[in-house]
Amino acid sequence: MPNSKESAQEIPTPAVNFEPSHAPTESALRAQGKAVLEMEALAIAAVAQRLDEQFDLAVKLLSACAGKVVVTGMGKSGHIATKLAATFASTGTPAFFVHPAELRHGDFGMLDEKDIVVALSGSGETSEIKLALDPIKRLGIPIIALTGNKNSTLAKHSNAILDVGVAREACPLNLAPTSSTTAALAMGDALAMVLMSQKGFRAEDFARSHPGGSLGQQLITVADIMRPEQEVPTVHISSGYTNVLQEIDKRRLGFTSVCDDDGKLQGIITDGDLRRALVNHAAAAFEKTAEQIMTKNPKTISTRSLAVEALRVMEKHAISDLLILDEKERPTGLIHLKDLLKAGII
Question: Is 323 in contact with 253 (CB distance < 8 Å)?
Fold first, then answer.
């Protein structure tokens, strides 16, 4: 439902006739659909324009939380609250949803004084929310309100108030929560994304909380699927042609790394490098050292990189293997195109 008059005056409403016709044309249906989308977009834009220091305060409260974020709401607001709890949890902020009515019947024991509550209510006067306010405050738990009524009971009990009021719902009858729930969802997402940035949450962290499905596969790191150091073909820079050939034949990967006394990577030698040495130097090739045959500055990757990045490097440079280096530029593993295929990256 529409909320505070103060908020409503700031939001323009598209002038579109929502009255149904007996035989609506395809263009009329599209016009109504477009009007709904425009109305909800305008509602979000108006909420963004009203963003003030209360948002800063809400982010600071969430950042300082040593416990969990408890998100609550009733009805449609409850559905939005459930989604927001999931968004917080998947982006580095432990969170869960609690039905406000259940807080009065046993679930209050789930709350801890280190937690913080994010409460959603368009009117700020939802009875189930109001009944839970006093017990929450007695525990000393901060409350962040997402409401369309800054003078409501919920707002008065809250430490930070985020105005998500809308001029009207996108519903033709101005009844079904549409614009209001979209505004609340967008505000919650804004909180979660800013908090995520403040915490330095990375793609690798996201991967850990999304291990399944195609999303999880796209966020697999090189460390998750790489072959260990023991499987990396390696020769010393002083090794002769025959030793290099034996190492490549033994490992059956078509190449070997070339390292110095400290184990630091200096280059690689492939089957092709050995053939070219024979073509260019004939029998003298057998007198060459690995350092003289090797290709310098080979393509490498770190364990922290995503596996999809390894695939991009392989595709760009038409190679099937990548060496993985540690912080001292020593080979610590390798990744082969078959490893990416087995992991479902390809």
Answer: no
The pair of structure tokens assigned to 267 is: 């280059």
Tell me the H-state helices in the chain.
Answer: 5-8, 26-49, 53-64, 76-90, 127-138, 153-156, 179-198, 203-208, 213-218, 222-225, 241-251, 271-281, 290-293, 307-317, 337-342
Query: Contact at 8 Å (CB) between 93 and 62?
Result: yes
CATH topology of domain 5-201: Rossmann fold (3.40.50)
Separation between Cα atoms, residue 94 and residue 185, nearest integer Å: 18
Token pair, residue 130, equals 């109001």
- What is the second-level CATH architecture of the domain 222-342? Roll (3.10)
Whether 268 and 298 have beta carbons less than 8 Å apart is answered as yes
**DSSP-derived pairing of the beta strands 234-236 and 255-259:** parallel
Domain definitions of the chain by residue range: 5-201, 222-342
- The C-alpha atoms of residue 160 and residue 179 are separated, in whole angstroms, by 22
The 10s digit of each residue's pLDDT in 182-222 is 999 999 999 999 999 998 887 666 766 665 556 666 778 89
**Any idea what the Cα angle at residue 147 is, between residues 144 and 153, rounded to 5°?**
80
Q: What share of the chain is helix, strand, coil (3-state, %, to 5)?
A: 50, 15, 35
Give 331's strand partners.
325
CA dihedral sign of residues 40, 44, 50, 54: positive
Can you give the C-alpha Rg of the chain in angstroms? 30
The C-alpha atoms of residue 144 and residue 148 are separated, in whole angstroms, by: 13
Number of other CB atoms surrounding residue 171 within 10 Å: 16
**What is the pTM assigned to this prediction?**
0.65
Helix (H) or strand (E) holding 230: none
> Taking CA 100 as the corner, what is the angle to CA 99 and CA 101, rounded to the nearest 5 degrees?
95
Please write the tens of the pLDDT for every residue from 282-326.
Answer: 999 999 999 999 999 999 999 888 888 999 999 999 999 999 999
